[in-house]
Amino acid sequence: MKNISSKQASERLIFALDAQSYDDALSLVELLSGHVGMFKVGKELFTAAGPEIIRCIKEKSQKVFLDLKFHDIPNTVARAAEAAVKMNVDMFNVHASGGSRMIQEAVSAAWNCADKLGQTRPVLLAVTVLTSLNNEDLKEIGFQKSTSELVRHLAGLTKAAGASGVVASAQDIRMLRENFGDDFVIVTPGIRSAAEAKKDDQKRTLSAYEAVAAGADYIVVGRPIRMAPNPLDACRLIVQEIAEGLSARSF
User: Fold this and answer.
1) Is 69 a residue of the active site?
2) 75-85 b/e with 16+ CB inside 10 Å = b?
3) Which of these, 95, 174, 189, 204, could form a disulfide with 169 (CB 3.0-4.6 Å)?
4) Is 144 contained in some domain?
5) pLDDT > 70: what percent of the chain?
């Protein structure tokens, strides 16, 4: 068993900062800074607070995952990628279903912009299949592939396009590791604590321990921390599960 420190484990935890206002988000940032590896700013918060919340998080020397899932014509996504880099985010994503050319242009624009600014290149991910969707949902939309088949296909497009990795369900981690190797970044959302029985709109997920043990590089946790009676205690519980998952890995 590996000896994993709390700091090593907490660096793998991305907190979904899905607050409805700048002030609510700021209070959570102040509470959890130093206890999580990164703060995820998604559509809800970015629409409410804009780039200012990113600037605030970065001023506190914390990392930011900009989770806007860009999906548009290649030129538009490339310009959005440049804008994300100029905000100095550490990670951002596009939708893999936008196609290989869209992903390639996002990668090229982001890397070139970061290099010109003298910044570290951000982790650029492509979203495969949302964790709120299952096989029946895909059939309704019109996809013929199962969730696992579609994730594998989209991950292949993502890797060929030069992106850093994917956002994918915990249930797809082992398949992704087997097919795309250890250097392919896997970020897994919708994670719950092993001690939590609550059900919500996440359909294809696992506990923090299970996801990390399977090979997730980062896990995204939101409601189990944010809605807990004591968010900091809930955060520490997740970090402990991450540490145990890292220790249990066979690779």
Assistant:
1) yes
2) eebbbbbbbbb
3) 204
4) yes
5) 95
